[in-house]
Design goal:
Helices cover 36% and strands 27% of the residues. Strands 3-2-1-4-5-7-6 form a 7-stranded mixed sheet, with helices on both faces. Helix 1 runs parallel beside helix 3. Helix 4 links the parallel strand 4 and strand 5. The chain contains 6 helices and 7 strands. It is an alpha/beta fold and 204 residues long.
Amino acid sequence: MGLWTDRVVPRIANRFLDTAQVRAVRERVCAGLSGEVLEIGFGSGLNVPYYPPAVRSVAAVEPSDLGWQLAGPRVTASEVSIVRSGLDGQGLPFESASFDVALSTFTLCTIPDAARALAEVRRVLRPGGALHFVEHGRSPEEGVRRWQARLNPINRRVAGGCHLDRPIDTLLTGAGFTLERLENSYAKGDPKPFGYLYEGVARR
Protein backbone atom coordinates (compact mmCIF):
# COMPACT_ATOMS: atom_id res chain seq x y z
CA MET A 1 0.00 0.00 0.00
CA GLY A 2 1.19 3.52 -0.80
CA LEU A 3 1.43 6.59 1.38
CA TRP A 4 -2.03 7.84 0.33
CA THR A 5 -3.70 4.52 1.10
CA ASP A 6 -1.73 3.98 4.31
CA ARG A 7 -1.87 7.44 5.87
CA VAL A 8 -4.75 9.37 4.30
CA VAL A 9 -7.57 6.97 3.35
CA PRO A 10 -8.05 5.65 6.93
CA ARG A 11 -8.47 9.22 8.19
CA ILE A 12 -10.97 10.03 5.44
CA ALA A 13 -12.98 6.89 6.25
CA ASN A 14 -12.88 7.69 9.96
CA ARG A 15 -14.39 11.10 9.24
CA PHE A 16 -16.87 10.52 6.44
CA LEU A 17 -18.18 7.13 7.58
CA ASP A 18 -19.11 8.57 10.96
CA THR A 19 -22.00 10.85 10.00
CA ALA A 20 -25.36 10.76 11.78
CA GLN A 21 -26.88 8.92 8.82
CA VAL A 22 -24.18 6.24 8.77
CA ARG A 23 -24.26 5.87 12.56
CA ALA A 24 -27.97 5.03 12.34
CA VAL A 25 -27.21 2.34 9.76
CA ARG A 26 -24.42 0.90 11.93
CA GLU A 27 -26.77 0.67 14.90
CA ARG A 28 -29.33 -1.26 12.85
CA VAL A 29 -26.76 -3.64 11.39
CA CYS A 30 -25.15 -4.38 14.77
CA ALA A 31 -28.50 -5.16 16.40
CA GLY A 32 -28.72 -8.88 17.06
CA LEU A 33 -24.98 -9.55 17.28
CA SER A 34 -24.13 -11.96 20.07
CA GLY A 35 -21.51 -14.35 21.36
CA GLU A 36 -18.16 -14.55 19.60
CA VAL A 37 -18.10 -12.10 16.70
CA LEU A 38 -15.80 -11.76 13.70
CA GLU A 39 -15.60 -8.28 12.19
CA ILE A 40 -13.85 -7.96 8.84
CA GLY A 41 -12.74 -4.48 7.83
CA PHE A 42 -12.76 -3.27 11.42
CA GLY A 43 -11.28 0.07 10.33
CA SER A 44 -11.19 2.66 13.09
CA GLY A 45 -13.76 0.85 15.19
CA LEU A 46 -16.79 2.88 14.19
CA ASN A 47 -19.11 -0.06 14.97
CA VAL A 48 -17.80 -0.53 18.52
CA PRO A 49 -20.34 1.79 20.23
CA TYR A 50 -23.18 -0.28 18.74
CA TYR A 51 -22.15 -3.75 19.89
CA PRO A 52 -25.07 -5.17 21.92
CA PRO A 53 -24.46 -6.42 25.49
CA ALA A 54 -24.83 -10.01 24.23
CA VAL A 55 -21.47 -9.73 22.38
CA ARG A 56 -18.78 -11.54 24.39
CA SER A 57 -15.76 -10.92 22.18
CA VAL A 58 -14.77 -9.49 18.80
CA ALA A 59 -11.96 -10.69 16.55
CA ALA A 60 -11.07 -7.63 14.50
CA VAL A 61 -9.60 -8.18 11.03
CA GLU A 62 -8.01 -4.96 9.83
CA PRO A 63 -5.00 -4.49 7.49
CA SER A 64 -4.37 -0.82 8.28
CA ASP A 65 -2.09 -0.02 11.21
CA LEU A 66 -3.37 3.55 11.21
CA GLY A 67 -6.97 2.35 11.21
CA TRP A 68 -6.26 0.22 14.28
CA GLN A 69 -4.46 3.15 15.92
CA LEU A 70 -7.47 5.43 15.32
CA ALA A 71 -9.68 2.73 16.82
CA GLY A 72 -7.68 2.77 20.07
CA PRO A 73 -9.94 5.06 22.14
CA ARG A 74 -13.08 3.19 21.07
CA VAL A 75 -11.51 -0.19 21.80
CA THR A 76 -10.26 0.97 25.21
CA ALA A 77 -13.65 2.41 26.16
CA SER A 78 -15.56 -0.73 25.19
CA GLU A 79 -16.61 -3.34 27.73
CA VAL A 80 -16.30 -5.96 24.98
CA SER A 81 -13.01 -7.81 24.52
CA ILE A 82 -11.72 -6.69 21.10
CA VAL A 83 -8.53 -8.17 19.70
CA ARG A 84 -6.88 -7.41 16.36
CA SER A 85 -6.78 -10.94 15.03
CA GLY A 86 -5.94 -10.80 11.35
CA LEU A 87 -4.89 -8.56 8.48
CA ASP A 88 -6.57 -10.09 5.45
CA GLY A 89 -10.20 -11.15 5.07
CA GLN A 90 -9.21 -13.31 2.10
CA GLY A 91 -7.25 -15.67 4.39
CA LEU A 92 -8.62 -15.75 7.92
CA PRO A 93 -6.32 -17.24 10.58
CA PHE A 94 -9.10 -19.11 12.39
CA GLU A 95 -10.31 -22.68 12.56
CA SER A 96 -13.55 -23.51 10.79
CA ALA A 97 -16.79 -22.96 12.74
CA SER A 98 -15.14 -20.59 15.25
CA PHE A 99 -17.65 -17.73 15.39
CA ASP A 100 -21.32 -17.23 16.16
CA VAL A 101 -21.76 -14.10 14.03
CA ALA A 102 -19.78 -12.03 11.53
CA LEU A 103 -20.00 -8.32 10.73
CA SER A 104 -19.02 -6.42 7.59
CA THR A 105 -19.72 -2.72 7.08
CA PHE A 106 -18.47 -0.88 3.99
CA THR A 107 -15.73 -3.48 3.55
CA LEU A 108 -16.47 -5.72 0.56
CA CYS A 109 -15.92 -2.85 -1.87
CA THR A 110 -12.19 -2.71 -1.10
CA ILE A 111 -11.17 -6.35 -0.57
CA PRO A 112 -9.41 -7.40 -3.80
CA ASP A 113 -11.16 -10.79 -3.95
CA ALA A 114 -14.49 -10.28 -2.21
CA ALA A 115 -15.78 -13.72 -3.21
CA ARG A 116 -12.82 -15.40 -1.55
CA ALA A 117 -13.27 -13.31 1.59
CA LEU A 118 -16.94 -14.24 1.85
CA ALA A 119 -16.08 -17.91 1.43
CA GLU A 120 -13.64 -17.53 4.31
CA VAL A 121 -16.25 -15.81 6.47
CA ARG A 122 -18.68 -18.62 5.79
CA ARG A 123 -16.02 -21.19 6.65
CA VAL A 124 -15.31 -19.73 10.09
CA LEU A 125 -18.98 -19.27 11.01
CA ARG A 126 -20.64 -22.00 13.01
CA PRO A 127 -23.54 -23.82 11.30
CA GLY A 128 -26.52 -21.48 11.29
CA GLY A 129 -24.30 -18.48 11.99
CA ALA A 130 -25.14 -15.12 10.44
CA LEU A 131 -23.28 -12.37 8.63
CA HIS A 132 -24.68 -8.90 9.37
CA PHE A 133 -23.74 -6.47 6.62
CA VAL A 134 -24.15 -3.08 5.03
CA GLU A 135 -22.26 -2.39 1.83
CA HIS A 136 -22.50 -0.08 -1.14
CA GLY A 137 -22.48 -1.58 -4.59
CA ARG A 138 -24.06 -2.07 -7.98
CA SER A 139 -27.19 -0.06 -8.70
CA PRO A 140 -30.20 -1.63 -10.44
CA GLU A 141 -30.52 1.47 -12.65
CA GLU A 142 -28.72 1.15 -15.98
CA GLY A 143 -27.80 4.84 -16.15
CA VAL A 144 -26.31 4.76 -12.66
CA ARG A 145 -24.40 1.58 -13.46
CA ARG A 146 -22.83 3.28 -16.47
CA TRP A 147 -21.60 6.08 -14.22
CA GLN A 148 -20.30 3.55 -11.72
CA ALA A 149 -18.28 1.91 -14.48
CA ARG A 150 -16.90 5.28 -15.62
CA LEU A 151 -15.95 6.37 -12.11
CA ASN A 152 -14.52 3.06 -10.91
CA PRO A 153 -10.91 3.56 -12.10
CA ILE A 154 -10.66 6.95 -10.41
CA ASN A 155 -12.46 5.83 -7.28
CA ARG A 156 -10.20 2.81 -6.83
CA ARG A 157 -7.14 5.07 -6.97
CA VAL A 158 -8.36 7.68 -4.50
CA ALA A 159 -10.38 5.47 -2.14
CA GLY A 160 -7.99 2.66 -1.35
CA GLY A 161 -9.20 0.24 -4.02
CA CYS A 162 -12.92 0.80 -3.45
CA HIS A 163 -15.16 -0.59 -6.22
CA LEU A 164 -18.49 1.15 -6.81
CA ASP A 165 -20.34 -1.60 -8.64
CA ARG A 166 -19.92 -4.92 -6.89
CA PRO A 167 -23.15 -6.98 -6.83
CA ILE A 168 -23.22 -7.66 -3.11
CA ASP A 169 -26.27 -9.94 -3.13
CA THR A 170 -24.81 -12.11 -5.90
CA LEU A 171 -21.47 -12.30 -4.11
CA LEU A 172 -23.17 -13.46 -0.92
CA THR A 173 -25.25 -16.17 -2.52
CA GLY A 174 -22.31 -17.23 -4.66
CA ALA A 175 -20.32 -17.83 -1.47
CA GLY A 176 -23.05 -20.14 -0.18
CA PHE A 177 -24.97 -17.76 2.06
CA THR A 178 -28.75 -17.59 2.21
CA LEU A 179 -30.12 -14.05 2.28
CA GLU A 180 -32.36 -13.91 5.33
CA ARG A 181 -32.97 -10.18 5.03
CA LEU A 182 -31.96 -7.71 2.34
CA GLU A 183 -32.93 -4.06 2.04
CA ASN A 184 -31.73 -1.80 -0.76
CA SER A 185 -31.81 1.97 -0.93
CA TYR A 186 -29.84 4.99 -2.02
CA ALA A 187 -28.09 6.80 0.82
CA LYS A 188 -29.72 10.18 1.27
CA GLY A 189 -27.56 13.03 0.06
CA ASP A 190 -24.97 10.84 -1.67
CA PRO A 191 -24.55 10.83 -5.46
CA LYS A 192 -26.28 7.71 -6.74
CA PRO A 193 -23.15 6.01 -8.16
CA PHE A 194 -21.57 6.10 -4.69
CA GLY A 195 -24.57 5.42 -2.51
CA TYR A 196 -26.58 2.34 -3.48
CA LEU A 197 -26.76 0.31 -0.27
CA TYR A 198 -27.23 -3.37 0.51
CA GLU A 199 -28.19 -3.93 4.15
CA GLY A 200 -29.21 -7.15 5.79
CA VAL A 201 -28.41 -10.55 7.26
CA ALA A 202 -27.04 -13.58 5.42
CA ARG A 203 -27.16 -17.02 6.99
CA ARG A 204 -24.60 -19.82 6.74
